[in-house]
Amino acid sequence: xxxxxxxxxxxxxxxxxxxxxxxxxxxxxxxxxxxxxxxxxxxxxxxxxxxxxxxxxxxxxxxxxxxxxxxxxxxxxxxxxxxxxxxxxxxxxxxxxxxxxxxxxxxxxxxxxxxxxxxxxxxxxxxxxxxxxxxxxxxxxxxxxxxxxxxxxxxxxxxxxxxxxxxxxxxxxxxxxxxxxxxxxxxxxxxxxxxxxxxxxxxxxxxxxxxxxxxxxxxxxxxxxxxxxxxxxxxxxxxxxxxxxxxxxxxxxxxxxxxxxxxxxxxxxxxxxxxxxxxxxxxxxxxxxxxxxxxxxxxxxxxxxxxxxxxxxxxxxxxxxxxxxxxxxxxxxxxxxxxxxxxxxxxxxxxxxxxxxxxxxxxxxxxxxxxxxxxxxxxxxxxxxxxxxxxxxxxxxxxxxxxxxxxxxxxxxxxxxxxxxxxxxxx
Length: 427
Ligand code: SDX
Hints:
Blueprint: E1 4-9, E2 12-20, E3 26-28, H1 33-37, E4 57-60, E5 65-68, E6 71-72, H2 73-79, H3 82-91, H4 97-109, H5 117-122, H6 130-144, H7 151-177, H8 191-200, H9 211-223, H10 231-240, H11 246-257, H12 265-278, H13 284-291, H14 312-327, H15 333-346, H16 349-353, H17 361-371, H18 378-399
C-alpha cells in the first residue's frame, strides 16, 4: 500500500504522506500543503478532517464500535465503576488496587466546594438553566483555586478538583435553586451514591441509596465518558490550545455540550416525546416533519455524524431503561412511545437512506427521569459523565509534541478592496 497520495493541479504535482491509524484508518497529512502549494482545504463542520492523532477512544461509525483505551464500552458498562473508567481514560490503563485507593482518597478530599461559591449559586435567577450555571461556576473555580507552583501539581490537582467538585456543584445548584438545604458529600459513599445522596437527601427524609438507581447512573456516566473528537471535546482542545487554564477550557466544553444538536438533545428528546404524548401519542406527525426539507424540525435523539448504524451506547441505554423501570416498578409511557417511534422510523425509507438511527440521547432521558433527575439537568448529567473524557483529551493535547494553537484558515468570499466613503458622500 502506498504511504503517500499524489495531488495534481495545472500540471503541478505534490505527494502528501498518508497517516495510518491502529485500526487501519487512513488520513492524508496536509500539514505542509499550503507551504508547498499555496492551497488550503475546505471542510465545513470538519466532517472529513482529523484535528489530531489520539490514543484515547476508538469509534467505528459503520460497525458501531466504541472502545475506551481499547476496552469495548459494553465491557466497561458491565464490569467497571465510573471512577475506574475515568482513571482509564485519563491515565491510559485501569488502576490497580493501590492506584484506585489513592484516586478515591484524592476525589473525596477535594469533593467540597469553597463556601463562598454558595453565594454565587444563590444569586443566579431561579429559572437559570443549570448548564449556564455549571459553565460559569466551573470557570469561577480558577478564582477560588489559583495556579499552583509546578505544572505537574497544577495539572494533577486541577484534574482531580474538577472530577471531585463537579458532582457537588451540580447537586448544590439543584438544591439552592429549590431553596433546599445543601447536602455535603460523604466519605462513606461511592462516586455515584454521593451524587444521588447530595441531590435527594433532606433533613426530614433521609435518602435511601437505591442500588438500581446507582447502577443505572454508573452505566449512564460510563457510556457518556468520552467520544473522540465530538463538538464539545473539540471545543476543550481548541480553547485549551491557547494554553488557558483547564477550568476555562472545560467551561467552554460545557457551553458547547449545551447545544440541542449535541448534549442538549437528551433534554430535547424528552420535551419532544412529552409533547407528542400530551397531544395523543401520534408520533407519525413528528416523523413526517423530520422528513420535510422545508421544516427545520429534527427527530431529536436520531442521527449522528459518525455512527451510520445503531449507536452502541443507545443499545445499552435502551436495555437499561427496561431493567431500571422494572426494578423501580415505574411505568413510563414515554418509553413505550420511544420504542414505537423507533420501530416505525427505522422502517421508513428516509431514515434508512439517511442512515439515521437512535443515538445515545434517544433513551438516556428515560433513565434520568426514572432516577428522579429534573429534565433541565439532563445535559448536566451528560457533562459530569463526559468530564473525564474532556480532561483526558486536553491532557493528551498538552503532551502532544506536534500540538500547537488551533487556528484554522478560510476561503474569503467578501468584497475586494475599495476606498472609504465619507458620510457626506454616502447619501
Ligand atoms: C451527540 O459527535 C458526537 O460524538 C456527539 C455525541 C457525543 O457523545 O459526544 O455522540 C453526542 O451529540 C449525539 C447527537 C445528539 N443530537 C441529536 O440527536 C439532534 C438530532 N440529530 C441531528 O441534528 C443530526 O443527526 C446530528 C447533528 C446529530 C448530526 O448531524 P450531521 O452529521 O451534520 O448530519 P446532517 O445535519 O448533515 O444530516 C445529514 C442528512 C440531512 O439530510 P439531507 O439534507 O442530506 O437530505 O440527514 C438528515 C439531514 O436533514 N438528518 C435528519 C436528522 N439528522 C440528520 N433528519 C431528520 N431528523 C434528524 N434527527
